[in-house]
Amino acid sequence: MVLSGLIYISTNQNSCKQQMIEQVFRKSEEKLEDFGLRSSPGSEEKLEDFGLRSSPGFLYNQPSTLVGRTDVVSMTPWLAPIIWEGTFDPTLIDSIYKQHNLTIATTVFALGKYTRFLKDFLESAEEHYFVGFRVHYYLFTDQPEAVPEVKMGENHHLTVRRVPSLDRWQDISMGRMEILEKLIKNELANEADYIFCLDVDAKFYGRWGVESLGRLVGVIHPWFFDYPRDQFSYERRPESQAFIPAGEGDYYYTAAAFGGSLADVHHLTKTCWEQLNIDIANSIEAIWHEESHLNKYFLYTKPSKLLSPEYLWRDINAAVGQVKIIRFSHVAKNNAEVRPNV
Ligand SMILES: CC(=O)N[C@H]1[C@@H](OP(=O)(O)OP(=O)(O)OC[C@H]2O[C@@H](n3ccc(=O)[nH]c3=O)[C@H](O)[C@@H]2O)O[C@H](CO)[C@H](O)[C@@H]1O
Ligand SMILES: [Mn+2]
């Protein structure tokens, strides 16, 4: 479970030619409060001045006050938007965000047999994920040599980092919180504006862009979006730090995709990692591991933006009418075959 003292592999930015650099996490002078407030490189703009500015003469469909999606809810009761196809204009929102030189850090983990998912994940991401915006993937793996060569689009970069192998898939999944916490704290302050953390056993089929950006972003789990809260698979044992009592809960969020500003995601990962460690000390493991802790976190620190299950579908789910486009989807996998343990 201890995943520190990593060997970093930095890659040639546009291909996966790897060059080994040994390094330990460096202590950063940056204050966490500074996250999200940095000046974008090469730009006079500061994010605190970030206005949703549009250019004169730029034409797009008139927004309506009366006509829109009526088959889904596009706002939470705390007034965070829930993003569905038809709730935003991609051309308009791209033009607004293009005025800021944003970088979206994106973490992905591929240990053991999960390296087999990398090719499809990366190739499909390069087709659909923040196309035209700066993206820096941080790929953590125990086998850098198994990372496929995938051509990166303009302003998309990939850094591969070696992490030790682990025997339990649960430890790999949960250990992501610790690695993310350290990555954000020690390295990203001057490198990125937003971060997303994505499962690797998934593939992009449609646009995932700036409409997904926000301070704290949760994705509604594709299995539970139409379930009553008492049937959510929250942790129900009060002994666990992830415990959510009956009668509470908003949505069931997936841990396969979440993100937001560096400061907000840093706080999330730090808190979840602390809670996971309290559980370890008390010899209890939450039913869905870090996903249970993430759900507890999002219940009491509400996301400022939610992504509909379009942003994480499952290839084995039947289609439903409300999901007009599948943007990102979990591939069907044989858990017993790909995981190091059952
Ligand atoms: C849809 C959904 O909500 N998925 C979550 C779910 O099952 P999943 O079945 O999606 O978990 P999973 O097996 O995909 O593991 C999560 C992630 O850990 C990494 N990994 C895991 C095992 C391994 O041998 N090598 C490796 O690299 C990989 O990035 C993978 O995508 O529950 C997990 C923890 O209980 C995580 O919260 C997942 O995000
Ligand atoms: Mn997964």
UniProtKB/TrEMBL annotation:
The alphabetical list of record keywords is: Glycosyltransferase, Manganese, Membrane, Metal-binding, Signal-anchor, Transferase, Transmembrane, Transmembrane helix
What InterPro entries has UniProt attached to this entry? Answer: Glyco_trans_6, Nucleotide-diphossugar_trans
> What residues make up the catalytic site?
E291
Q: Which domain of life is it from?
A: Eukaryota
GO CC terms on record? Answer: Golgi apparatus; membrane; vesicle
Example of a GO biological process term:
carbohydrate metabolic process
- Matching SUPFAM superfamilies, A to Z? Nucleotide-diphospho-sugar transferases (SSF53448)
* Cofactor(s) essential for the protein: Mn(2+)
- GO molecular function terms noted in the UniProt entry: hexosyltransferase activity; metal ion binding
Q: Where does an alpha-L-fucosyl-(1->2)-beta-D-galactosyl derivative bind?
A: H221, E291
**Membership in a protein family:** Belongs to the glycosyltransferase 6 family.
PANTHER family from the UniProt entry: GLOBOSIDE ALPHA-1,3-N-ACETYLGALACTOSAMINYLTRANSFERASE 1, GLYCOSYLTRANSFERASE-RELATED
> Under what name is this protein listed?
Globoside alpha-1,3-N-acetylgalactosaminyltransferase 1-like
Lineage, broadest ranks: Eukaryota, Metazoa, Chordata, Craniata, Vertebrata
